[in-house]
Amino acid sequence: MDTQALLQEAQNFQAENKEQLDAFKSRFLGKKGVLNDLFANMKHVAPESRKSYGQEVNAIKQAAEEKITQYTALFENSDSKSTPDIDHSLPGNWMPVGSMHPVTLVRNEILEIFSKIGFSVAEGPEIEDDWHNFSALNFPPEHPARDMQDTFFMDHEAAFALRTHTSSVQVRIMENHKPPIRITAPGRVYRNEAISARAHCLFHQVEGLYIDKNVSFADLKQTLLHFAKEMFGAESQIRLRPSYFPFTEPSAEMDVSCNICSGEGCNVCKHTGWLEIMGCGMVDPQVLSNCGIDPETYSGYAFGMGVERIAMLKYSIKDLRLFFENDVKFLKQFGNG
Ligand code: DAH
To answer: Which of the four pLDDT bands, split at 50, 70 and 90, describes residue 336?
Structure first.
């Protein structure tokens, strides 16, 4: 065996990976490896040459061991480097959690108050036809609400418009359901108004409708008093002022006692002690028959309120536009999750 060549092989060895190192290890130091063969060969070497032969074999052994130590260390280090340094005890990164929009919070609160006394939630489309938004609700053809100035029409024939109120959902429900009917209808409504602190081209309403035999104005009044107490506190009082809507007769506007000054008079209630929060009334018999319900047998009440208006009163928000600006600093102030 050429000891010189083996020594060179051992000295020149380079490993690119652990497999190559293992192969080198077993070639030189393995049971059937080169070095065992060389040592076994000792007895065939002439006695006078044994010393130098032994030195040559030891040199090969030393060279091989050096390479093995060197590359073992190298691959061990690189192994530990390939796994990143992770400290599992470090606290995690927090994901910022959003908060509910005040309009959503107040809408949910309104719906919940009514659902506890048996009202289920109904919905209708935001693009409405003339019948559901106006005609079935007794709006005469010359009514100003039908004017281009107030309503966003979808086409030149004015057959379709963005609904101007959620009262359109009343019509859809009465057309498709038999009394008793007891629903709330939340949703977005649109009006072609100049945007200011008190008016916007879009806002939210919650509609209410109750149709059954013998429903009276007293039922309406008691239901709304219950709502006011739940929404604004047990001390709240209400008053109903005569008003006019084409689809109710009689019609009223409801005020709630100012919860900011407890009726003493302040800027929010303009020193009257009262805040107007909704329109209401007994469903006009003509509207019932427009929707296929016999007004001789059934009667009912309806009401509609602006969600932003109630949120403004509840949270003392002075400008309606804040609801639609999506300023996180504003939105974060109201309950979360
Ligand atoms: N739809 C009316 C509005 O947008 C509000 C309203 C008044 C709804 C009286 C009603 C009602 O259901 O009975 O101004």
So the answer is: low
Q: What end-to-end distance do the CA atoms of the chain give, in Å?
A: 82
Cα(26) to centroid(ligand 1), Å: 93
In tens, the pLDDT along 217-271 reads 999 999 999 999 999 999 999 999 999 999 999 999 999 998 778 778 887 788 8
Mutating to test ligand 1, I would choose from 150, 171, 245 the residue with most ligand atoms within 8 A of its C-beta, which is 245
Which tokens is 269 given?
Answer: 């209630």
Look-up of token digits 């073992």: 72
Hey, CA dihedral for 211, 249, 291, 157, is it positive or negative? negative
User: Residue with the nearest Cα to atom 8 of ligand 1?
Assistant: 304
Whether residue 194 is predicted with pLDDT greater than 80 in this model: the reply is: yes
The CATH architecture assigned to 102-328 reads 2-Layer Sandwich (3.30)
Tally helices (H) and strands (E) across the chain.
11, 9
| Cα 7 to Cα 26: distance, rounded to the nearest angstrom | 16
* Torsion on CA atoms 20, 21, 23, 28, rounded to nearest 10: 140
For the Cβ of 248 lying below 6 angstroms from any atom of ligand 1, the answer is yes
DSSP 194-214: ---SS--SEEEEEEEEEEETT
* Residue located nearest, by CA, to atom 2 of ligand 1: 304
Q: What does the domain layout of the chain look like in residue ranges?
A: 3-82, 102-328
